Structure formats: C-alpha cells, structure tokens
Amino acid sequence: MNHEIPGDAAWSVPVRAGRTVTLTALADGANATVLIIGADRLDRLNIPDTLKSQMSARIKPGMVLMSDRGLALATVLASTLDWHDGLTGALPDRLLLLELTKHGFGEADLHGCINFFSKVAVADDPRASLAYIPYHAHAGDTVTLRADQDLLIFVSTAPHALSDGPAAGVAVQLESPAHVEDPVLREEAVRALRLTRELIA
Amino acid sequence: MTITATTVALDSVVEAGDGALVSVPAGGRLRIVDLHGNQAVDTLFYDAHDIDNRYSAFDTIREQRAVFLTTGSRLISTRLDELAVITDDTCGRHDTVGGACSQESNVIRYGEFTRHQHACRQTFLRYGAEAGIGQRQLTHNINFFMNVPVTSTGGLTFEDGLSAPGKYVEVTASRDLFALISNCPQVNNPCNGWDPTPIQLLGWW
User: Fold this and answer.
1) Measured between alpha carbons, how far is A123 from A87 in angstroms, rounded to an integer?
2) pLDDT, tens digit, for every residue of A175-188?
3) With an 8 Å Cβ cutoff, is A124 touching chain B?
4) If DSSP states are collapsed to H, E and C, what string results for A129-147?
C-alpha cells in the first residue's frame, strides 16, 4: 500500500514481520518523527540501546533498531541519506499523542523517537555542541526499514523541533517481499536479530 | 533576599549495584558523590505530582544545543517543563545518551553469559514501583560521571570515566521531584572502571 501523509500530520500503521516500509520525502526539508512499538505492545524502540550497541550517534543504513528488551524491531535496509537524527526528540505533538491514544497508548509512551530525514550535527568541542542542518533531506530522499517482528509504527510530519522551515509531506509505502537479505551488520545487531527470530518473529 | 533555613535532609550511601528513590522538594539540593571514582550513576527525574511529566534526555539535549550535561544544564521534561538544574559539578561532564544497562541489552552487547547479571533496569523497576514507575514510565536516563564521547562523524563509544574519588554533581529541584537512582552494577565495560563502587547521596531542603 502507499499513503501520503501531508505535512504537520500524524499517522500510524501496523507492519507485519518481514514487510518493508519505505518513507519518501515529498519536499525539501521533510522530517518524519517515528515511534515504534513491538509485537507485545509494551516493548518499544530504545534509542540509547540502539546507538550504544552499534557505536553510532546517528541512525544510518545497516543498523538494527532495538527495543527496551533487547530485541530487533526493524532493520534499516537502505537510505539515500547516511544520517538520520536520533538525539534531539520532538516537541509535544497533539496529533501524535492522539494517534497513540487510538491504539490504547498514552503520554507515557511518548518515548525517544527517530527524526528520519533530519540531521543535527555534532561538533568536536567540549560540550558536543549541536547544530541543526536545514534542508538535509531533499524531495525524493528515502529510507527503507524491514520489520523484524510485528510492529506498530507511528509517524509525525511536524517539522523538526529545531527547524524554522515549513512542514513537508512524507509518503509511506508498505511492501511484502518474499525474502530480504540482511545487510552487513555489527555482531550485536546479528545477535538481536537471531534472538528475535528464535523467540517471536 | 530571603534566607531560607535548610538542613541536611539526606545523607546516605548507596552500595554498588543498589539504588534509591528520593523525594526532593522544590528548591531542594541533591548532591551525588562519586566516593571512589569512575562510577556511573543512572538517574531519572519525575514530577512527583504527575509521573508522566518525566525527564526527557532528548528534549534536554535539544534545548541546550549540546550533548553533555554540566553546571547550568536545565533538565527538561517531556512537557518541556524544567524539572531541575545542575547547579554544581566538579566532574565536568555527564552523559545522557547512553541509557541504562539491562539484562537484555547486556546479552546483545556482550553475549549470553551476561543474561543473569544484575542491571540498572532491574534496580529502576524495583525502586520505582513504590512511586508507580513501571516499564512504560521508564525513560532514557542521565548517567552521572559517565563518559560517552560522540563525534562529528557520528561515532559514539563508552570510555574510561573523567571522574575521580570525591567528585560530585549537584542538582537543584525546580519542582517537587522523585529522583530514581541506580548505582550501576555494569562490569562488562569501563563505565564503572570495571569495578562498581558505592556513592553518597546528600540532600539539603
């Protein structure tokens, strides 16, 4: 299926294990704030565990997005961008909260998010100062995830919290490929995928 | 200027691998002392009157436009309220990107042999329970005294601490708070110098 989320909107979609989700920026400067909740509807995306186990301060292709309980939620298969922001969160978002509420979730579930298509650069100074990079993404940029267990994915297209640009739409395409090879992954990510497949996928 | 009398309301030692839930009233000062050096102290803050209004690592990072925490850092909640301010810091910088260790993430990072080692998430859940803090309320914490360098090329590593015996950090509560503390038991990386040690909590209010 294919759905275009307009700018300044929120949407949610269930994604079965093995399916892929491709987000496409529909205009320059797009941002897709994403929350992911796992198959048991309690386990969820854990950004610190995702970053530290793969020794990265950014989200990029070839990473597994990990849950609070050490399972693989999704694998970042490919992207036209090598940096997606996972460090700067999102402003309180009424529409995203409403979307969570539809599924029985609430404010306690507004957890660390990924801001796909956005980059906040880190400086090599004593505080690791941050600078938002305007228009990091351009129309047509994409990122593709593979669900590694049954997921609920929440997407907000509100502008990044540090952006003063306009909101932009994001297209979401779901596909059901027969099989997707794992990309090259660190051993920690391979362990998370193996455990997930053994237990629940 | 109003001078308000304060007393030492808290003076306790948290053993290595143990934790605490501390109620800190608005205006209260909580000091965490790294008694033996290089000890990560995983810490969460909650609005004592509404635990859904909780510390948010990523809102805090974004609002200060910097990754590391130190004196002057405002600790921001999910609703963008200021929960507390770091008002003194003899260590120099603290992490809030590295999160807490859990039994499950230890398995991913280090292997199956760590499955039943004690971990911060266990401590958070144990001490948080009396305030109604459970799995859904746990969020990404501060790691006082922990050194997690991030780089302009997008790298992130856990390294030996910058702390030393007697170094401390002090926060002043901007509203009534719960401070949920896990004195990290991790032995598989250098965050505790490979040897977890006790900390001291001091409070004035």
Assistant:
1) 13
2) 999 989 999 999 99
3) yes
4) EEEECCCCCCCCCEEEEEE
Average of per-residue pLDDT across A148-166: 98
pTM value is: 0.96
Among residues B111, B112, B110, B123, the alpha carbon closest in space to that of B190 is found at B110
Chain B CB contacts of A57 below 8 Å = 97, 150-151, 154-156
A186-B194-B184-B153 Cα dihedral, nearest 10 degrees: -40
Which ipTM score applies to this complex? 0.96
- Backbone φ and ψ for A164, nearest 5 degrees, come out as -110, 15
CB distance from A126 to chain B under 8 Å?
yes
Residue B154: closest CA among A154, A54, A162 = A54
Q: How far apart are CA B154 and CA B163, in angstroms?
A: 24
Supply φ then ψ for residue B6, to 5 degrees: -125, 155
pLDDT, mean over chain B:
95
Q: What are phi and psi of A166, to 5 degrees?
A: -75, 160
Q: Give chain B's residues under pLDDT 70.
A: 1-5
Residues B16, B8: Cα–Cα separation, whole Å: 23
